[in-house]
Amino acid sequence: MKPRSNKTTAATTQSGKSIARKPAAGRLRLKKDSAPTASQQRERVRRERVPIAPQGTMAESIGFAAARNRFLAELRFLNRSRHTLTAYERDLDDLVAHMERLGAGSPAQVEPRHLQEHIAFLGSKSERAMSVASTNRKIAAIQSFFSFLHEHHLIASDPSTGLDRPKRPLKIPAYLSPDQTKRLVEAPTPDHGDLWVRDRAILELMYASGLRASEVCSARLNEWDPTALTLKVEGKGMKQRFVPVGVPAADALSRWIGGLRSELVEGNESLADHRIFVSRSGLPLERVALWGIVKKYAAVAGLHNVTPHKLRHSFATDLLRGGCDLRTVQEFLGHASVVTTQIYTHVDDRKRDAVRKYHPRFG
Length: 363
Description:
By secondary structure, this protein is mainly alpha-helical. The protein has helices at about 40-50, 55-60, 65-75, 80-100, 110-120, 130-150, 180-185, 195-210, 215-220, 245-265, 270, 285-300, 310-320, 325-335, 340, 350-360; strands spanning about 10, 20, 225, 230-235, 240-245.
């Protein structure tokens, strides 16, 4: 027996005229949804963020190469981090590729209008889908570059002085509740393999001290004081600070350093670069591996969209919720300005209860 079809069929009458029959009853076929999925949208954004210039464009440009080399040499002299140098090289590669496309073949030929067009291009969602933060970082690199050239009399005037940075929208940082944080930091157990001791120490330390992922990976043995329960940290801009470490995090650190870590390193501290956290091979733990650790145990704890920085946000939020003043939180986080720390003063239940208690029209 042939299966029923939903297609309209034609029948012929005795007069020879054809009439359309109605579709046979059966399962209704829905039209396939053509809207892109969330993963497809993320992939499209990723493709649109491909840099406009091949890496090394600036180094190969005859007009910009000498200025580039002097500028980067200055950054190395100032002991800028490897990540900063890489970001500046990438941003300036994009700049040079666009400037040559606009007819400016050297720094002396770059005019304010060229830079304005470049910034407009970077901020165009249809072209680059670049965030405001990324655009501002590129503008900062451009301004540093031309300011350096002008100060060293390599160009007559600085074309970047009038550049305006787009304002970043106010965004309340995402954070975990105390219960969620407890579930996350206690997620590593012996059931997850022998490295659970290291992973527990990492999570405890990140929440106890509000550290960035890069600060955790770069922490060294001689910077940890188990007696004073403090850790010396090198943050952004090579700025150093001391952060307190809570007892649970200190216990986890001691268990890791005196146990499995010594077995993995086997006395070869030069290979480990004296880092507190190392991989199974005894090499320094990379940031991408740390991200994987956080993601792994977030899934174990039944949490979603957890990143290393969300633990830092949770640290700051819980301090303020507990009554800590903003200046102290700023020092703990290593923020250069208290304005950056103010993003954590979002409305919580404690503030809402205070307003409800004292405001006559809050209800």
